[in-house]
Amino acid sequence: MKLLQCIEIHIFAANFHFMVKICFFCGSFHVVKDGHFFGIQRYRCCVCGKRFVNKQRLSPDALYHEYLYEKQTLKQLAVRHHVSVSSIQRCLRKTQSNPIAHAKQEVVVLMDATYWSKHFGVLVFKNACRHNGVVLWHKFLHKHETVSDYMEGVQWLEEHGFCIRGIVCDGLKGLFRSLQRYPVQYCQFHQVKVIQTKLTKHPESTAGKELLDIAYLLAHTDKESFEGALDAWRMRHKSYMDERSQPDTDGKTHYLHKRLRSAFLSLKRNAPYLWTWYEHIDLGIPNTNNGIEALFTDLKTKMRVHNGMTDGNKKRFIEAYLTEIGSVAVRIPSQQQKCSKTHHHF
Q1: Are 141 and 46 part of one and the same domain?
Q2: Rounded to whole angstroms, how far apart are CA atoms 210 and 237?
């Protein structure tokens, strides 16, 4: 008997919830019919006075998840949810990134910038100590990055209690000097790319081929072996590298193999920063920036599905990606926040 009463109560509750309309805005049960809207029954709340249509609302967060990770275009989302493209656009504009505040911790910072055009890019700081690769800080760039941009991020980390154990960066001029109070590792991958740019991937001279082979060993050997191979190369090809041209009309001579010399001097000049990870093995500093390069590759792959976005929408997309994937500790600096308040159209 009690079982039948319970079943009747559940049936009544289900029918009551189905039959009684609840205000979408205030939750009141005092709702009356108020005409039709494009053939759909419209209701008016007697408490708050607002009108609404009794149908399921789109969730901005869920919709942006489909847009960002399922690689759905605006038209595909409109078909899936049976609404217009403009409704999808309005819903996506309601999405807001909620930054997650990190506890004070020790970090090894991977820092690098990537670009979509000459006037739009993003500078990202990522923690290399954790397996999930938390993004610590980022800033949108309207031109090429500068040392002051990097120092702005470092200052923010210090002000928020982060203890920087080490830094991995590229060879931006003046950056090593500004970061000299930290153990700084120059990305070995960037160094190899610099050598390739100067010598090309297929140098013609024997000296160039041997120097390129030594550069390729950079990420696969230890400090002593690499420096020994480089010094041995210098002794073998010293006379070739020092060859000079005949005096010109002004009596001046020039080196004949400038690019070869430039490649060799690049290795010698950056030598103090190429083996920081080796000298501070206990700090767990990586020897390359591959962790942040992988993040950039994945981000650009997802953005490629949505070609034609404005810079404002790109910022919104990038910020949502970094917040979701990297658990961003901070959004964008005050200057960029002012820019983001302007209205953009998908």
Answers
A1: no
A2: 10
Which of 95, 123, 158 finishes a domain? 95
Q: Which domain holds residue 89?
A: 57-95
Task: Convert the pLDDT of each residue in 277-332 to its tens digit.
Answer: 999 999 989 999 998 998 999 899 888 888 888 888 888 889 888 877 554 444 33
End-to-end Cα, the chain, rounded Å: 60
Give CA–CA dist 296/119, Å, rounded.
17
Phi, psi for residue 326 in degrees, rounded to 5: -100, -5
Same structural domain, 69 and 185:
no
Are residues 125 and 82 located together in one domain of the fold? no
Mind listing the pLDDT tens digit for each residue in 137-157? Answer: 999 998 889 999 999 999 999
Q: What is the mean pLDDT of residues 70-76?
A: 80
What are the phi and psi torsion angles at 27 (to 5°)? 80, 10
Six token digits for residue 223: 């400090």
pTM of the model: 0.71
CA distances from 224 to 6, 232, 287 (A): 80, 12, 16
Q: By C-alpha distance, which of 76, 269, 249, 316 is closest to 171? A: 269
Query: How much is the mean pLDDT over the chain?
Result: 82
Instruction: Give the residues across from 168 on adjacent strands.
Output: 110, 185
Residue 185 lies in a domain: yes
